[in-house]
Each structure stands twice: as structure tokens, then as C-alpha cells.
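Class prep. Sample record?

___
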Amino acid sequence: FAVLVVVLFALGVGGGPQALSKVAAAVLWVAVLLAGLLSLDTLFRGDAEDGSLEQWLLSPVPLPWLVAVRVFSHWLTTAFPLVLVSPLLAELMQLPRAQLPVLVASLALGTPLLSLLGAVVAALTVGMRRSGILLALLVLPLYVPVLVFGAGSLAAAGRGQDPVGALLMLGAGLLVA
């Protein structure tokens, strides 16, 4: 999905390298955010339907560990491949090569935070049928600061400023989450 969004946006804006490079950071971050949002509804749904969630409560393993493993596996299968492919997507969007380390660092810090924030909302809506729109409405306000700091780190790097402040904010958010 993220690749499709980036390709369609590149086609929609046109082939001008300067036009693409101006919006590359925002487009890459929005594409990753929306791709993660698509799979969020199924994070706990299968476990709720087959009764695994009740077994989690009865298991001797602490519930926070089980949830953390589930969220980590969700991140590993949905967001981590996007972090790995992000240099190719950045090349498609004409992002300057000097900003690639900042892009990968911001995605490496921001995507686990998106998964953790999304897991809270997915857990709240797991018992509801067709909760996709409600889930999106509840989680998008939580995603906005991550998007601002993630794309802001790239914007700062593009202006020649130090992106470490925005990356530290993403890291602090990840630690708190």
C-alpha cells in the first residue's frame, strides 16, 4: 500500500525532481502511517474471535509481555519492511541522499511508536464489529505528533538544521509508550 501511495503521488505531482523533493518527506511518512493503519484493525481481532485473548489472561506469562510480543510481531511484519524499503521509496520521490540516514532513523523510531499507540486503540475496539472507521478516527489524533516529528526531522535536515531534536522526541515517545 505504501509503495502504491508513493508511486501514485509521484505520478500525480509530475516528474519534476524539485517538486517531488519538496514533499518527499511528508509523502513517505503519510504513506507509512496509512499502511500501518490498514492492518491495525486485525491486530487483536483474530485472537478475540478464536478465544486466545481469554487464554492469555489465564496463562502464567504476564499479560503485558504477551501484548508486547504481539505488538512487536505486528511491527515486524507491517512496518519493518517499510523501513527497509524506505531508501528505494525515497529515491523514487527524489529525496536528497544526504537525508536518507535521517529518514531511516525517524522511521525506525516512529513506526514502533505508531504500532504501540495503535495497539491501545485496537484493544479498545476489538469487540466491535466493523470498527475500522472508528479505529481510524480514534488513532489519527494520536498519530499526528509522530507524523509531525518524523517529517519534521527530515524537513530540518533538508534546511541544513540539526534533526536530532525531533529524533529525540520520537525516541522519548517510544520510551513512554
